[in-house]
Amino acid sequence: MEKHPSIPIHNPEANVRSIHDIDFIDSEETDAVVVDHGCCNDKDQPRLKLSGLDWIRSFTVGSCCFMYDGVLNLEGMSCLESLVIGDNSFTKKRQSFDDDPERRFYLKNCPKLRELKIGCYAFSDYSMCEIENVDALEVVEIGELNQRSCNFYYASLELKSGSL
């Protein structure tokens, strides 16, 4: 069947170029959210909130994004299968590290999450990293092997399972 202008085309991926784009993601049309490189770094912008996007299967953040977001809370995302964060995202200290007690990462109760990948220097000034009840997790890559990465440099890391 030929493409017809009145027949909508399913685009399973939503590209985010500003924090406000997230408000317009359609649950009927979207499987994956991709945040463009260098996006969402305005100091006065609203913080990232994904609590209402529990149908998302994949969340990918490009490099150098969300430098002013001090808390990333991914709790109860029941459909999330893949989380990929690019280099130098969620940090004010690019290519470096710091200890900020107000900056925290929570990944909890995501039963389908199979893949967690975090690039070098991402979360390098976060003081806490809690990963809990992600029992399907098969791949965890944080930083780069044999390379200075500084992810969660001063953070305590907690991995917990409800079955322990």
Could you name the key traits of this structure?
164 residues, mainly beta, six-stranded parallel β-sheet, four-stranded parallel β-sheet, 10 strands
Report low-confidence residues grouped into runs of 5 or more: 6-10
Q: What is the averaged pLDDT score?
A: 86
- Helix and strand content put the structural class at mainly beta
Please report the distance between the alpha carbons of the first and last residues: 53 Å
Strand content: 25-35%
Proportion in helices: under 10%
Query: Rough shape?
Result: globular
Number of helices: 0
What letter string, H or E per element, gives the SSE order?
EEEEEEEEEE
According to DSSP, the number of beta strands is 10
CA gyration radius, whole angstroms: 16 Å
Biggest sheet details: 6 strands, parallel
Side-by-side strand order of the widest sheet? 1-2-3-5-7-9
Account of the 3D structure:
This protein is mainly β and 164 residues long. It is 0% helix and 30% strand. The protein is built from no helices and ten strands. The strands form two sheets. A six-stranded parallel beta sheet has the order 1-2-3-5-7-9, with no helix packed on it. The protein has a four-stranded parallel beta sheet with strand order 4-6-8-10, with no helix packed on it. The chain is globular. The N and C termini lie far apart (53 Å). Residues 6-10 have low confidence and may be disordered.
